[in-house]
Amino acid sequence: MARRHAAAVSAFLFLLLVGHCHGGKTGICYGRNADDLPGPDKVAQLVRQQSIKYVRIYDSNVDVIKAFANTSVELMVGVPNADLLAFSQYQSNVDTWLKNSILPYYPATVITYITVGAEITESPINVSALVVPAMRNVHAALKKVGLHKKITISSTHSLGVLSRSFPPSAGAFNSSYAHFLKPMLEFLVENQAPFMVDLYPYYAYQNSPSNVSLNYALFSPQSEGVIDPNTGLVYTNMFDAQVDSIFFALMALNFKTLKIMITETGWPHKGAAKETGATPDNAQTYNTNLIRHVVNDSGTPAKPGEEIDVYIFSLFNENRKPGIESERNWGLFSPDQSSIYSIDWTGRGNVDIMTGGNRSNGTWCVASTNVSETALQNGLNWACGPGNVDCSAIQPSQPCYQPDTLVSHASYAFNSYYQQNGATDVACGFGGAGMRTTKDPSYDTCVYMAAGYKKKTLRSLFANVMNMPTYWSDQQFALTIVFLLLSYSSKISTKNSTATPAPSGSSPSLLAQCRTLLLPVLPIVIALGFL
């Protein structure tokens, strides 16, 4: 038993350390639909002052690209919808664009992504048939100059690309977009590019406040949570629900391995009289909670622990944008570069706001003694089945099997589901068979999950995130962790070997930091794997 615990602890240490080496990225969208913004050089300086590492722009403006030279800020540049016709018709058009707008400034300006088209399903002119040919031509142009593996090509979408987004497990793409979506998804898989989507919980709340609570939209710990009836997963915030609706839509088309990247999300700080949710406090709350959610690699209920890269909209207010008042007031900064509200970009500051993945403060969920055995059995069956709870601990000869009573077994299963799904009231429902308590129900060697416990056990995390069997031995798990780590390090090493050398005196690379943290633990895990 001691060896099993040691192996599990060592494996967990690896996961913890690897988590510090990965981590979701948080960037900013730099829109320029305004006539009062500071020049690109001042913007680049502001971005560096704020320690922002990733910036999305919507075109390939030369002055902007030049401004970010030698800053280490990674740019995502865009090909506007208006250019899709020219880009799709002739390869020479793309080659010329690359030669004039990108190559003269690369790699002094770090460009990591090119978005070809933006929310094309929302375009007043139908350009959907042009986007994939344009993407292929951009890829061909990059390949000619040897940059096709250094700059990733994709295209951004609105949530309107779905015909259904609720419940998340029923997420489905609009069939009328199949003619361009399928070849696009195939292109993304072939080139290991992410599916990019712009998500706005604000609009879900603003358009239907009676169905979407403000707490749910803002990642508030007071959110009651929503259960997906098909999966039993509990959603404590709208952002996760929207991300998972995309994931399930991709899975329905057999593209579940595609990574999802959020290329726009945010909250307006000002709006018209009817836009009561558009306030500086709400904008600060949403973006602060979002950053924490990303930095902590909270993942989503369907993909716990999955890192998600996010770009917050937007750096500045844009006074020339048409539409209702809020359209011009998404900025974190005013044109004079003063902050409209404060944001902790590290996601670890002392902000009095919790993420949507909140945990209980010393509460557990146990079976009620005032309901029928049928109700308890139904709840137990559901938790250990559709609820995705690991009920092995209440099997014969396991720590929580005794006492062999329905109430005891149901209590363990109810609490596991409760803790793994946000520790909210709704997660302790079970049709009235569950009840919350502040008394720890653990006994002897049977330990109940408690506040702060990860959503999934170590085994469940591997099974769900890495598709590894839960029945593997500790030795297999430990050795597989080592293999995955070394494989990842090898990939980074190969990539870094072709990158521009770091200047003398610069801080250690991410790879070097990871190796420093991880290599001392390698012998322990390997030894435990063979014990």
From TrEMBL:
One of its GO terms (molecular function) is glucan endo-1,3-beta-D-glucosidase activity. Gene3D superfamilies: 1.20.58.1040, Glycosidases. Transmembrane segments: none annotated. Residues 1-23 form the signal peptide. The keyword Ribosomal protein does not apply. Keywords: Disulfide bond, Glycosidase, Hydrolase, Plant defense, Signal. Residues 363-448 form the X8 domain. It catalyses: Hydrolysis of (1->3)-beta-D-glucosidic linkages in (1->3)-beta-D-glucans. The keyword Cell membrane does not apply. InterPro entries: GH, Glyco_hydro_17, Glyco_hydro_17_plant, X8. Its EC number is 3.2.1.39. GO terms for biological process: carbohydrate metabolic process; defense response. It holds the Pfam family X8. Belongs to the glycosyl hydrolase 17 family. This is glucan endo-1,3-beta-D-glucosidase. It comes from Triticum aestivum (Wheat).
